[in-house]
Write a structure and sequence with these properties.
Elements (H helix, E strand, L loop, with lengths): L4 H20 L5 H12 L1 E2 L20 E3 L6 E5 L12 E2 L13 E3 L22 E3 L6 E3 L12 E3 L5 E3 L14 E3 L11 H5 L7 E3 L23 E3 L21 E3 L21 E3 L6 E3 L12 E3 L11 E5 L12 E3 L4 E6 L1 H4 L7 E3 L4 E4 L13 E3 L16 E2 L10 E3 L4 E5 H5 L11 E3 L4 E4 L13 E3 L4 E5 L12 E3 L4 E4 L13 E3 L4 E4 L13 E3 L4 E4 L13 E3 L4 E2 L7
Length: 578
């Protein structure tokens, strides 16, 4: 006889309740219970996370405590800060009473505050531990070598403690069962043999060493023999200033490789195709040169490809040549970031034909020509698109050379920046495009193009906008009252156009405005007194218009104001005093 759905649900719920009751009714080991209470006495608990830890309750039902279902012995402590906000942080130091938890396998104390104290020796004696997480727990001083005695450890997370340092990492090679290691933000630069020791971990699957002040990836032994099980190698924000070493391309099991924000030199080797399982590759912000190798297109599982370079940085990639068409075959690609390089050539529909999963596209500050037909329908729906050119502050860079009209946007796009190009056409055609659902666009930058026409009344369709920059185009007409529907607007740029009329009263609805830049237009009328009520305003630029009348006294109430530029108008009267 088949059990009905309602009866099946009742049975499942009953079993769940019985399981919970069994856990709470487990006989708590009295010695371990008192050890935990002494551990609690060393800590300040501002949000009473440990309020259930009391003599009247069995310790197996306490918050964060897990007991073995048979013996009732404590084998897990989950005491990491669940919020990462500081409000639930445990503060203090570790009690030696932890040693009495002889069966403890799992200890998570992450994101608490141990006030820069050294990692206590008591932890180094807890030989049953297989999982130890002290990430971001504000420990300081020398990482004790005695941690090498925890031979059962499989996961060790000491990262996020910038007050820690290592003088000799040889002890790490003793942890033969280690599968995951995170030492991020710990100073490792004193040990030049770090690579030799870490590569001896035969079971290692994930290695995270960001911001560790490491200077080289060269083995003193002349070879590196990482485990075939290594799937994640994360070494960003260190001080590597050499070519990408050959041993990297023997790690055929790698799924993720991050070498960003270093000073790597030379070319990207064609042997990168040996890493055929990669789904994440980040080589951004280095000093790499040469062409993007065609062999990158063989990484068929690649989802994230990032080789962009921050243009505010002096150590920038200088990759050149054209974008290999074979990259268009990476059908799993979600993010393509190649901005701020010397890449040129033409990108057409062919480059995107199979990129149906693409959500992030960054080709800003390149010399790429974007050549697609106006009625082309992309196979993807972008959420972030950055196509910005160099602008006047970066004359040595190559600008994008996009021409034609603005594209149709997916409602899922959050940021759209296509400034400093030669785009033309009516702005209203873009603003009034049909959207099947509410737009999520927050940042729109179309500045420094050749767009024309009036804004019209379609701004109300873009109510998620926080930053709107239409400066340096050929726009005209009046600023529409529909601007008042953008309640989240924080920055509004219309400078260097031909707008006329006055400042619309509806702009008063934009209560979080921090910047107004209407300079170099043909605006007229009085400067409205309500501007003095927008307490978030830091910048007001109305210069080179035709405003007349007095400067409103209310402007003096703007305590956050940094820039007030009213020059070259027809204002009269006295200058308001503070």
């Amino acid at each position: 006889m088949i059990m009905r759905n309602s009866e099946l649900i009742m049975v499942v719920l009953l079993l769940a309740v019985l399981s919970l009751c069994k856990r709470n009714s487990l006989a708590c080991n009295e010695r371990e219970k008192h050890a935990l209470l002494r551990f609690k006495q060393y800590l300040t608990d501002p949000t009473n996370r440990l309020s259930s830890w009391s003599l009247t309750e069995g310790c197996c039902g306490w918050a964060g405590v897990r007991c073995d279902n048979v013996s009732g012995r404590v084998f897990e402590l989950h005491l990491g800060n669940p919020e990462d906000s500081g409000t639930s942080t445990l503060v203090g130091k570790l009690s030696p009473a932890l040693l009495e938890l002889e069966h403890l396998k799992f200890l998570n104390l992450s994101l608490n505050d141990f006030r820069g104290t050294p990692i206590p020796s008591v932890l180094c004696s807890m030989s049953s531990l297989t999982y130890l997480n002290l990430w971001g727990a504000s420990f300081g001083g020398l990482v004790p070598h005695q941690l090498g005695s925890l031979s059962s450890l499989r996961q060790l997370y000491l990262g996020g403690n910038p007050g820690l340092y290592v003088d000799n990492l040889s002890w790490i090679s003793l942890l033969s069962s280690l599968e995951s290691l995170d030492l991020g933000w710990i100073d490792l630069h004193r040990d030049i043999h770090w690579l030799d020791y870490v590569s001896q971990l035969s079971s290692l699957s994930e290695l995270y060493l960001p911001h560790c002040q490491l200077n080289n990836m060269i083995s003193s032994q002349g070879y590196v023999n990482f485990a075939l099980s290594l799937t994640v190698l994360s070494l960003p924000s260190n001080n590597f200033s050499h070519n990408m070493p050959n041993w990297l391309f023997n790690l055929s099991s790698l799924l993720a490789l991050d070498l960003s924000d270093n000073s790597l030199v030379g070319q990207i080797p064609s042997t990168i195709s040996n890493l055929h399982n990669l789904n994440y590759l980040n080589l951004s912000v280095n000093m790499l040169v040469g062409r993007i190798p065609e062999s990158l297109g063989q990484l068929k599982y690649l989802e994230i490809l990032s080789i962009f370079s921050n243009f505010l940085c002096v150590k920038c990639n200088e990759l050149n040549g054209t974008l290999p068409r074979i990259l268009g075959l990476l059908s799993n690609l979600v993010a393509l970031r190649i901005g701020n390089n010397s890449i040129d050539g033409t990108i057409s529909e062919v480059n995107f034909a199979k990129l149906s999963k693409l959500k992030y596209l960054d080709i800003h500050l390149t010399s790429v020509v974007f050549n697609v037909s106006h009625n082309w329908i992309p196979p993807f729906q972008l959420q972030h698109m950055l196509l910005r050119g160099c602008g006047p502050k970066f004359p040595a860079c190559g600008s994008n050379r996009f021409v034609g009209q603005l594209p149709h946007l997916s409602p899922n796009v959050v940021l759209f920046s296509i400034a400093n190009n030669s785009l033309s056409g009516q702005i209203s055609s873009f603003l009034c495009q049909k959207l099947n659902e509410r737009s999520k666009l927050r940042i729109l930058d179309l500045s420094n193009n050749a767009l024309s026409g009036e804004l019209g009344h379609c701004l109300m369709r873009w109510q998620s906008l926080t930053h709107l920059n239409l400066g340096s185009n050929n726009l005209s007409g009046e600023i529409p009252e529909s601007i008042g529907s953008l309640f989240s607007l924080k920055a509004f740029h219309l400078h260097n156009n031909s707008f006329s009329g006055g400042i619309p009263l509806s702009l008063n609805n934009c209560t979080v405005l921090g910047l107004i830049d209407f300079a170099e237009n043909k605006l007229t009328g009085n400067i409205p007194s309500w501007i003095g009520e927008r307490t978030h305003l830091m910048v007001i630029r109305l210069r080179s218009n035709e405003f007349f009348g007095d400067i409103p006294q209310q402007i003096c109430r703007l305590s956050s104001l940094i820039i007030l530029d009213l020059a070259n108008n027809r204002l009269s009267g006295s200058i308001p005093s503070l």
